Amino acid sequence: MRDFGHGHGGSWLRTARANDKPTGAIPRDRLIRETARLFTPHRWLVGFVGGLVLVTAAAGVINPLLIKVGFDKALFPPSHHVNLPLLYLIVGLMVAIPIVTGALGVVQTYLTNRVGQRVMEDLRNRLYTHLQGMSLRFFTGTRTGEIQSRLTNDVGGIQNVVSDTATGLLSNVVTLVSTLVAMLILSWQLTALSLAITPVFVLYTYRAGKLRRDVTMQAQKSKAEMSAITEETLSVNGMLLSKVFGRRRDDRARFHSENHRLADLAIQQAMAGRTLFGVIGAFFSAAPAFIYLIAGLVLAHDPTAGISPGTIVAFTTLQSRLFFPIGSLLSTSIEIQASMALFERIFEYLHMPHDITDRDDAVTVDPGSVQGDVRLDHVWFRYDRNASGPLDTDGSVPLNGDSTSARAELSREEAPRAWALNDVSLEVRPGQLAAIVGPSGAGKTTISYLIPRLYDVTRGGVLLDGRDIRDIKVDSLADIISMVTQETYLFHASVRRNLLYAKPDATQEEMEDAAKAAFIHDRIMELDQGYDTVVGERGYRMSGGEKQRLAIARVVLKSPRVLILDEATSALDTTSERLVQAALTPLMAGRTTIAIAHRLSTILAADVIFVIDRGVLVEQGTHSELLQRGGLYAQLYNEQFRGGQVEAECEDGLVLTSGAVVPAAAEITP
């Protein structure tokens, strides 16, 4: 038997779109440009840091050159007499230079970390702001844990790269170049020997970096999965479900399995390139011995070769200085390749387009000037915008012959459902209470999401006082239209903060007036800290009826001109329902109200009823008019309310009208 379902099933559950998730890698050159652009706002500070790096890196080659002068001119001069004045000068310079470069290094480290943290801050803000602009289509197709992982794990993972890599890269390059120049000045033969095996290291580094990048990408996906598992199973809802169904063992096994995979990937990530660095370390440690050997062989065959003791000591000192930047550059290369996987994941989200944006000529509308006339004008809509539907080249759906019969054909349950809404036109006049009814998955909730522009129509338009809502700024539209849904969401914060979310500048008196209008003030005052009481995760310290009334108080505080109700009482007990209905009555008074109806009380109170079936508006009118027509509404009414017997049986209770309270309330589903 069909019922007036709440619409959260059917097409609503099919809102996830594959193309709303990142698909495919970003080209490397574009990724590098995007990453470099992150530093643009800090370019002057980056330039200053670069200058410090040049000074400190270049100054590092002075001491080895002073060593040669000290050996050959001061300690062991040709005259065989120690040159003390020159020795004092050299020693003074060798002491002063490290002190100065060390001080500059401290300043460089501070400024580098300052730039890095500001870049990270900007990136997190940019990513969060971009995600806020995504439509519901994105969030219904993406797990919360995945989003959180991108904001925390991925952004946090590039911190070292952003803070240290750029300056480290420049420092190592300058050190390498200056050291090579100094070594060539001392002996080109010994320099060639020192660099002979470097190309092998570079090739191995490239391969190690590629492996590190692949492992890093897998590790970040595993971290995202861990975040999703944690968010799903350790939330209040998830833990309640786990305990009720006795699935804690399975949840632990799932967590342990993913945790083991993450640990394995972390080991692979840590070991990628370690063999290379071990070989490099061994080679660099043994290199001075080869220099001594080669120098000895050269001098043995040609004592006049010009290799003095000072040259050998200075060269081995430079050689150790050369190997450090080479090793650092190779290590940095691997880190950069690994970090590209993280940047790729971040920019994949940042490059996803926003579905809901303000037009260039969009206007801000004063809520006080809004009459509240809501109209759907030939609206077509589907959640999966890439799905193939029965579209002609002009974007319309072909209706062969009579449109009525064609719509009837579309309504048949055997027909394929390409569209959530098919050419729906309806109007709710200012101050009216309109009820939208129909079977589960008919498209009722879809209509309620199109009116406040949580989604954009595929074709047609939603009009507010004759103006397309796409011509109104999104923030302005939010001041005009508000919703009360079945599943009330409350922050893990105080009652006060939850109420002020609707109107941050509201006074205590305004909050209390709103709470009194929603019949929740007295209950709030019974709490241990009144309005400062923390309601708990998703408001779990409060009952379902209390949460709904608090949500209604929040909407009362906002005072919208157009109110949308995804029947806020269908899941409540009779007592809570009556309290919530009583709270809704003053909220609805004088406002245009569109209610997705699940209860007979709302249907009977409506000024106009719209009957939706498989995305098609099949009937509209008042309760009595629709019964007289004998169509789908009459069929559903007779099936679920036994042809009016339910009304006769409900002698007590409350029924909402747009301005009064009349007897009898009943649920749609008996």
Could you explain the architecture of this structure?
It is a single chain. With 670 residues, the chain is α/β, with parallel strands linked by helices. It folds into two domains: 325 residues, ABC transporter type 1, transmembrane domain (ABC transporter transmembrane region fold, Up-down Bundle); 224 residues, P-loop containing nucleotide triphosphate hydrolases (Rossmann fold), CATH 3.40.50. The chain has 25 helices and twelve strands. The strands form three sheets. The protein has a six-stranded mixed sheet with strand order 6-7-8-3-9-10, sandwiched between helices. Strands 2-1-4-5 form a four-stranded antiparallel sheet, with helices on one face. Strands 11-12 form a two-stranded antiparallel sheet. Helix 3 packs antiparallel against helix 13, helix 6 runs antiparallel to helix 13 and helix 18 packs across helix 20. The longest helix is centred in the N-terminal third of the chain and has 49 residues. The radius of gyration is 36 Å and the shape is elongated. The N terminus and C terminus are likely disordered.
Helix-strand layout with pairing:
Elements: H1 28-37, H2 43-59, H3 62-75, H4 84-132, H5 136-140, H6 144-157, H7 159-186, H8 188-195, H9 198-233, H10 236-245, H11 248-271, H12 274-301, H13 309-350, E1 374-381, H14 403-411, E2 421-428, E3 433-437, H15 444-450, E4 459-464, E5 467-468, H16 474-480, E6 481-484, H17 495-500, H18 508-517, H19 521-526, H20 544-558, E7 562-566, H21 574-588, E8 592-596, H22 600-605, E9 608-613, E10 616-621, H23 623-629, H24 632-641, H25 645-649, E11 655-656, E12 661-662
Helix pairs in contact: 1-13, 2-4, 2-7, 3-4, 3-13, 4-7, 6-9, 6-13, 7-8, 7-13, 9-11, 9-13, 12-13, 18-20, 20-21
